[in-house]
């Protein structure tokens, strides 16, 4: 009897010993992360939480089990943590660039010698680099200027839409919804360039080899990915049903979400060409970070598709 009472008391005092759950670190200002929240609220039967962070959180906080980021940040982390793994792609997103045509910008070539608002060392700056490279411009042919994101009008002066409207920059290249708000900030002066053939963001979930080797944690991750797949089907096939909830999460209007939704592909898989994309992109990331590129043979290890067979069992 005394042993039973002691056990109950310890359970009350130390609930974390007996209750486990997934902790997911994500950038809480991106459209791409929001299926994680819907999965937890609507489909996942376990315990999970989403906190602010990214791939680096897996190594700065041992309690983090999963982390979501674009591939640029995965490469940066893998260069110092070769136990990082990409296990599931949440979304693939095409980026756009908008310029002020009143400054004589009507083609990409007109951006030579201009100022372009972006966020250095991120997928924003890499997109600008890749897109302008398609017409023979390199990073010495234009100037990238940092600006902040914006989520709702009116955008502040230090945001990229505010800077474009004020003439501080001639063009802007970044993810949504900041790009859409930059277009709206200059109205009929906007010249929009679609960079889908130059670059697409691959926004994925990451974990570590240690988490994958733990049978209990691995099953929790599989269960969550199955729930995430269900949420993503809503995002892909019935977006109107999730826009109000995404709007509440991000503070972005449903009108803006409707405008940018078509360039978001909620995929529930890992693209076949991901390794090739990462090998090419690593050259730019390494140069930005001032380090040697990770060898291609080693970089192949960053992608782990083994969980997909457990999330989507083959049909007999």
UniProtKB/TrEMBL annotation:
Signal peptide: 1-21
Keyword Signal: yes
Key words, A-Z: Signal
UniProt-listed InterPro entries: SsuA/THI5 (IPR015168)
Source domain of life: Eukaryota
SUPFAM superfamilies: Periplasmic binding protein-like II (SSF53850)
Domain SsuA/THI5-like: 61-240
Name this protein carries in UniProt: SsuA/THI5-like domain-containing protein
């Amino acid at each position: 009897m005394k042993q039973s009472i002691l056990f109950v008391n310890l359970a009350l005092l130390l609930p974390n010993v007996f209750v486990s759950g997934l902790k997911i670190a994500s950038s809480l200002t991106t459209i791409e992360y929001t299926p994680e929240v819907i999965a937890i609220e609507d489909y996942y039967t376990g315990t999970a939480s989403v906190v602010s962070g990214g791939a680096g959180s897996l190594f700065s906080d041992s309690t983090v089990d999963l982390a979501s980021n674009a591939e640029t940040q995965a490469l940066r982390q893998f260069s110092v943590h070769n136990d990082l793994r990409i296990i599931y792609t949440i979304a693939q997103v095409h980026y756009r660039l908008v310029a002020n045509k009143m400054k004589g910008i009507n083609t990409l070539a007109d951006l030579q010698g201009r100022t372009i608002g972006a966020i250095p060392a991120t997928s924003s700056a890499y997109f600008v680099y890749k897109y302008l490279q398609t017409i023979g411009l390199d990073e010495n042919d234009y100037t990238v200027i940092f600006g902040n994101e914006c989520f709702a009008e009116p955008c502040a002066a230090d945001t990229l839409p505010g800077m474009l409207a004020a003439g501080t920059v001639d063009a802007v290249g970044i993810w949504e919804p900041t790009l859409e708000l930059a277009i709206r900030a200059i109205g009929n002066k906007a010249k929009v360039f679609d960079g889908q053939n130059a670059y697409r963001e691959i926004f994925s979930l990451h974990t570590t080899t240690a988490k994958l080797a733990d049978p209990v944690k691995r099953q929790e991750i599989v269960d969550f990915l199955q729930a995430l797949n269900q949420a993503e089907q809503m995002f892909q096939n019935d977006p109107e049903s999730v826009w109000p909830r995404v709007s509440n999460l991000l503070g972005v209007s449903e009108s803006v979400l409707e405008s940018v939704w078509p360039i978001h592909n909620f995929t529930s898989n890992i693209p076949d060409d991901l390794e090739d994309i990462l090998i090419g992109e690593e050259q730019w990331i390494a140069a930005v970070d001032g380090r040697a590129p990770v060898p291609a043979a080693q970089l192949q290890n960053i992608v782990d598709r083994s969980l997909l067979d457990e999330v989507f069992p083959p049909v007999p």
